Amino acid sequence: MTENILVTGGTGTLGRHVVDRLAAAGHPARVLSRTREPYIGDLRTGAGLGAALDGVGTVVHLASDPRDSSADVEGTRRLIAATPAGTHLVYISIVGVDRHPYSYYRRKYEAERIVENSGLPYTILRATQFHNLVLFALEALAKAPVLLVPAGTSLQPVEIEEVAERLVELALGAPAGRVPDMGGPEIVSVAELARTYLRVTGRRKPVVPLLMPGRVAAAFRRDAHLAPDHPDGRGTFADFVATAPGRSGYGTRARR
After folding, report:
1. CA distances in angstroms from 114 to 34, 99, 111, 152, 184, listed in the order given
2. CA–CA separation, 121 vs 174, rounded Å?
3. Which of 45, 50, 112, 194 has its CA 20 to 30 A from that of 33?
4. Which CATH number characterizes residue 187's domain?
5. Count: domains in the chain
């Protein structure tokens, strides 16, 4: 079968699941990489994008970097500039990016607007935080004698494989614009998520909620990042931790 799908960020935490599911569905995808043959391309400079996009009918744009202020916005602009007219662009975003002051979320929202105004047929899916990222954060916080967590803050974590499944459905379907948000099956306080993590992993230490200052923390307390009307996920955080303690899959390029 002719390859006609390109995945940016295909070697990342979400991207690996998307690529595997596309292959299982009979649609092997090209993975854009700065170093890996044969589809070498760089969203930071635009180099190699034309060749990587040649003959592609769908692009699943997952590449993102919270540490780089230009990665999402400028990278999306360069990708669109190199993408042939009529190509279906599928973009993964985050619930609440249009109402949250967190700088990374604002950049994701700007990238959304670039996609919407690109002239390309597109689909945008917003998802809540992945179980992997929550576990990654709690693993880091649990290194201290006391596990300090933000007070008054809840999350709606979702299983990353379920998001990948939804993205593949969207990539193989017709362009749909911005589709309904995708959230996890339950909204849980960060303190309770921390206690779940400690309980499932057999650890004991105090969990201490701490009121965090600033506009970003206040927005999280207002639940600007939640999708209460879309508890679409099936797997809970407790289920995830029980099968993957210590294996969040996140490193220095964690997103969300």
Report:
1. 23, 17, 5, 34, 27
2. 9
3. 112
4. 3.40.50.720
5. 1
- Which position has the token pair 């600033």? 214
In-domain check, residue 57? yes
pLDDT tens track for 201-246: 999 999 999 999 999 999 999 999 999 999 999 999 999 999 875 5
Residue 254 is assigned to a structural domain of this protein: no
Residue 255 lies in a domain: no
Q: Which stretches of the chain drop beneath a pLDDT of 70?
A: 1-3, 245-256
Q: How far apart are CA 31 and CA 145, in angstroms?
A: 42
Tens digits of residue pLDDT in 42-71: 999 999 999 999 999 999 999 999 988 788
User: Rounded to 5, what percent of the chain is helix, strand, coil?
Assistant: 35, 15, 50
Helix (H, G, I), strand (E, B) or coil at 21: helix
Cα–Cα nearest to 219, from 159, 150, 139, 157:
150
Each as own residue / partner, the long-range contacts of residues 217-220 (CB below 8 Å, 24 or more positions apart, any chain) are 217/150, 217/153, 219/99, 219/100, 219/101, 219/102, 220/150, 220/153
pTM value?
A: 0.93
Task: Name the residue type at position 68.
Answer: D
Which letter does DSSP use for residue 134 in this model? H
**186 assigned to some structural domain:** yes
Could you please report the per-residue DSSP string of 137-161?
Answer: HHHHHTTSSSEEEETT-EE--B-HH
